[in-house]
Specification:
- There is one protein chain.
- Helices cover 47% and strands 14% of the residues.
- By secondary structure, it is an alpha/beta fold.
- Helix 11 crosses helix 12 and helix 16 runs antiparallel to helix 20.
- The longest helix has 21 residues.
- The model has no long low-confidence stretch (mean pLDDT 95).
């Protein structure tokens, strides 16, 4: 089983008990409201149940004292020995600390970005990639088998407009009114042949540079070949010259068109149905789609498709994210791929750096419109949170380098200082933080946590000498544990953990 010192302590207090860090130090190291939550089911008064919990806690060697507070809270004050044991557990687990908890383990596909290959990757699509890849990293860390896929809409009106725009420029003409413009169109026009494969190559290279690695690439033109064999499994009817899927019978807000009767051409939902089938036929337990908020209607229609095909709709997850706005000098930049004034991912990376790009595109919840101050994001100083956290990691690496082959031990040789205690409590939170981020598909909690670890480390380092101190071996162990957790937190959101800065 994975190591989680806090959960292990809570488990020893009884079923249903969870521990949280109080906001005030006088309320102990950890507290539980279990008595308030469980009193009804146990048919006991909360204070009575709290007294039982306090007695159980006080009997544990790790607990110095337990106090009842308010209507039924129990505050725990832990011994230094518990913190030393927690530190030993972190060091023993190493890079796996906080992971491997998933039960049962699933095979999960995360399909993300999937922008039409009509231009380079934009910052908006990069948010999709940063969000989706961070969710995938969290699920992998939990112990699931995860595969990342990009779905290309390689047919249809947008692709025709893109090709027509490139061909027009090749002839020395302006692109069609409803076509695509911009310097990238002129660049592609200078290359011979179909512009779509060339654009796909650029997209894939940009995403790989962005540390978003795809395991597979799906093409709509191939997927929709399966549509005819799937039609008998759908609830359909004909109306208005179109074959419709009766998705309203399965929770959708309106029925979806499948096939145009006049020319038997497939409409968008036909490919959606075939793609749902394709995912589950490949053996995925869960299919996660990462889509822009303007695709909110896809939630019900994809679940309806799964139900009609005989799959549990709960196996389909749709993660939605909001827009990205960039500001510079206090002014917002306008972005439109078709007009040619879009901000592309490669340019964004050049402007603010790869690590900052990954950090800033995932440090807010997906339900929030993201505003990125490019001037701050580009600043390579401790005012910039990503560099502040990386600096903590680099400082620790420097301490450990200077320590050479000195002893590193979680064994205490004196009383635990308040700053050491606070840093250890923060590190011990990591398993719960990572688990919650994975379960809620909310990677934005990881950067917030990493900043708090850096804060606690800097406070500890400011107050206490590490090398040549009476507690050198223990403090080196504490530094090593902080380094493990910071590096893992940064890695979960695709940011590097430098040894030097």
């Amino acid at each position: 089983m994975p190591t989680d010192p806090v959960s292990e302590l809570a488990g020893r207090l009884g079923a249903g008990v969870t521990l949280e860090r109080p906001s005030e130090a006088e309320h102990g190291d950890y507290a539980t409201s279990a008595a308030l939550r469980l009193a009804g089911a146990r048919r006991q008064a909360p204070r009575e149940l709290a007294a039982e919990l306090a007695d159980t806690a006080a009997a544990l060697p790790e607990v110095e004292r337990a106090e009842i507070a308010g209507p039924g809270f129990v505050n725990l004050f832990l011994s230094d020995a518990w913190f030393a044991d927690a530190l030993a557990a972190i060091l023993a687990a190493g890079e796996s600390f906080g992971g491997g908890w998933a039960q049962p383990r699933q095979r999960i596909q995360v399909e993300m970005v999937s922008a039409n290959p009509t231009g380079p990757v934009t910052v908006a699509s990069a948010r999709n990639g940063a969000f989706g890849d961070s969710v995938a990293r969290l699920l992998e860390f939990a112990g699931h088998g995860v595969e990342r896929e990009y779905y290309y809409n390689d047919a249809g009106v947008q692709m025709d407009r893109f090709r027509a725009s490139v061909e027009a420029v090749r002839r020395g003409e302006e692109p069609p009114e409803d076509g695509y413009r911009g310097e990238y169109i002129a660049e592609i026009a200078r290359e011979e042949g179909d512009p779509v494969p060339a654009m796909r190559t650029r997209i894939e290279a940009s995403l790989e540079r962005f540390r978003v690695h795809f395991d597979s690439w799906a093409n709509q033109s191939e997927i929709e070949k399966r549509v005819p064999e799937l039609l008998p499994r759908l609830d359909t009817y004909e109306a208005e010259g179109t074959l419709w899927a009766r998705t309203t019978a399965f929770g959708d807000d309106k029925d979806r068109p499948l096939i145009r009767s006049s020319d038997h051409s497939f409409l968008y939902f036909a490919a959606d149905v075939a793609y749902v089938h394709d995912k589950f036929e490949r053996g995925f337990d869960t299919a996660i789609y990462v889509l822009g908020a303007d695709h909110h209607g896809y939630v019900a229609r994809l679940k309806a498709a799964a139900t009609m095909l005989g799959y549990d709709p709960a196996r389909v997850e749709v993660l939605l994210y909001q827009l990205v706005h960039l500001t510079s000098g206090g002014r917002q930049r306008k972005m439109s791929k078709r007009r040619g004034d879009v901000v592309f991912l490669d340019d964004f990376i050049e402007e603010i750096g790869l690590d900052a790009a990954r950090w800033y595109l995932v440090n807010r919840g997906p339900d929030q419109t993201m505003e990125i101050d490019v001037d701050l994001a580009a600043e390579r100083s401790q005012k910039n949170p990503v560099y502040y956290v990386q600096y903590a990691h680099a400082r620790i690496a420097g301490i450990l380098r200077n320590a050479g082959d000195a002893e590193v031990s979680p064994k205490l040789r004196g009383a635990l200082a308040p700053e050491e205690r606070e840093l250890l409590k923060r590190l011990a939170e990591f398993p719960a933080i990572a688990a919650e981020a994975a379960e809620k598909r909310g990677p934005q909690g990881i950067p917030t946590y990493a900043i708090r670890v850096a804060d606690d480390f800097h406070r500890f380092y400011h107050e206490h000498r590490v090398l040549e101190s009476d507690q050198q071996a223990f403090r080196l162990a504490l530094c090593r544990a902080a380094q493990i957790v910071i590096a893992r937190a940064l890695g979960l959101v695709g940011v590097s953990a430098p040894e030097r800065m």
